[in-house]
């Protein structure tokens, strides 16, 4: 299990820090460690950026406070493997909550970038949805359908922003770079700044004729049906990140991510503890003494289990490999807690038998 990162510590703020405190701390540290500066440190900068991305976002911060940094990084300890939400190999794709590109773009105005190799394209918003699943679906994995109403790629121009058959050319204003440079005179001397080109909105491309459906943005609100594989072993409160399935970004920008928050419904017969499942079984006093069979609920439905002779109330019977699917396909165990019922009222005949037994035991 990897250590959760303490984002508050990374930014040097305390847990009750206001949004303003976090912003200030982030700006200060980002200045200090920006890789373009002599004192810069790319690793440190990345870490600061990651911390800020979580703590400056109300929802992510709340989840982080509740679940720790694992909520975006997957807390299924152990090495790689697993299935991504679309069924291939690879992890859950909780991804790394990093997006240096965006930050470089954001800081472009402050530091300038020699060569202007990067343009600040727009970034699509992240989308968060909730999914309620049963304890069985969580244990074995399932497929869920989502109908999302979000900013998606324009279905007429496929996101290009150009009218059908219209040519797309490099933006003349910025020479296709998406950015324009400016020299400003400041008290610190001449400072070069880089701004997003206002003609092409940072995309570097201009259609000869704009698409009429999306007015050249390449996006519009639309419904999207999405099927997502919920991986086996997922637990209540975990979040799946599906990269690139958030809202589309106008003007050729990168799409945001989709976050699926998992809620596992309470089950009245089964209780989960990590990768193990617990259930109860009630047996009579004679059955406890003599052994025999009893029925209990499991992830696979009601099954008959063997009760060994002389079992005590409160003892656990282990059903090996009948728990939750772990990474790699093995399963946790199922524990059945035995309760021996002592009846308050019994028949005259039963009472007679017990009295005889009582005498025998004396
Ligand atoms: Zn369009
Ligand atoms: Zn331009």
Large-scale geometry: elongated
CATH topology of the domain at 112-263: HSP40/DNAj peptide-binding domain
Q: Could you give a short account of the major beta sheet?
A: 4 strands, mixed
CATH class of the domain at 112-263: Mainly Beta
Any idea what the CATH architecture of the domain at 112-263 is? Sandwich
Question: What does it look like?
Answer:
The protein has 362 residues and is of the alpha+beta class. Among the domains are: 112-263, Urease metallochaperone UreE, N-terminal domain (HSP40/DNAj peptide-binding domain), CATH 2.60.260; 271-361, Urease metallochaperone UreE, N-terminal domain (HSP40/DNAj peptide-binding domain, Sandwich), CATH 2.60.260.20. It is 24% helix and 28% strand. The chain has nine helices and 15 strands. The protein has helices spanning 7-11, 19-33, 42-55, 58-67, 70-73, 100-111, 135-140, 285-290, 348-361, and strands spanning 127-133, 142-153, 168-170, 179-186, 189-196, 205-207, 219-230, 239-242, 258-264, 271-273, 276-284, 292-298, 301-307, 316-319, 334-341. The strands form six sheets. Strands 10-11-15-14 form a four-stranded mixed sheet. A hairpin with a 2-residue loop joins strand 4 (179-186) and strand 5 (189-196). Helix 2 runs antiparallel to helix 3. The longest helix has 15 residues, at 19-33. The radius of gyration is 30 Å and the shape is elongated. Bound molecules: zinc ion (2 copies). One zinc ion (ZN) binds at residues 154, 156-157, 161, 211, 213-214, 218.
């Amino acid at each position: 299990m990897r250590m959760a990162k303490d984002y508050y510590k990374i930014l040097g703020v305390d847990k009750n820090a206001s949004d303003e405190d976090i912003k200030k701390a982030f700006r200060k540290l980002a200045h200090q460690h920006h890789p373009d500066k002599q004192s810069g440190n790319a690793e440190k900068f990345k870490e600061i950026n990651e911390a800020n991305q979580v703590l400056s976002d109300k929802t992510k911060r709340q989840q982080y406070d509740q679940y720790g940094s694992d909520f975006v990084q997957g807390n299924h300890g152990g090495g790689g493997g697993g299935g991504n939400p679309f069924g291939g190999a690879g992890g859950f794709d909780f991804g790394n909550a990093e997006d240096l590109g965006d930050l470089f773009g954001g800081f472009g105005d402050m530091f300038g970038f020699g060569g202007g190799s990067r343009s600040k394209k727009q970034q699509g918003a992240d989308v968060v949805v909730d999914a309620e699943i049963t304890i069985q679906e969580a244990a074995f994995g399932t497929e869920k359908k989502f109908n999302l109403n979000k900013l998606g790629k324009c279905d007429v121009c496929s996101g290009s922003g150009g009218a059908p058959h219209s040519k797309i050319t490099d933006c003349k204003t910025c020479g296709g770079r998406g950015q324009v440079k400016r020299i400003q005179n400041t008290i610190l001397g001449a400072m070069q700044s880089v701004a997003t080109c206002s003609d092409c909105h940072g995309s570097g491309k201009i259609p000869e004729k704009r698409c009429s459906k999306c007015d050249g943005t390449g996006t519009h609100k639309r419904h999207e049906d999405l099927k997502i594989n919920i991986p086996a072993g997922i637990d209540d409160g975990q979040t799946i990140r599906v990269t690139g399935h958030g809202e589309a970004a106008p003007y050729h920008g990168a799409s945001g991510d989709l976050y699926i928050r998992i809620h596992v419904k309470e089950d009245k017969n089964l209780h989960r503890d990590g990768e193990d499942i617990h259930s109860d079984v009630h047996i009579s006093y004679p059955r406890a003494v003599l052994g025999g069979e009893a029925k209990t609920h499991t992830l696979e439905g009601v099954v008959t289990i063997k009760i060994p002779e002389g079992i005590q109330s409160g003892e656990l019977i282990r059903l090996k490999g009948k728990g939750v699917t772990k990474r790699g396909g093995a399963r946790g165990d199922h524990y059945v807690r035995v309760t021996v019922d002592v009846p308050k009222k019994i028949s005259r005949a039963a009472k007679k038998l017990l009295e005889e037994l009582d005498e025998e035991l004396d």
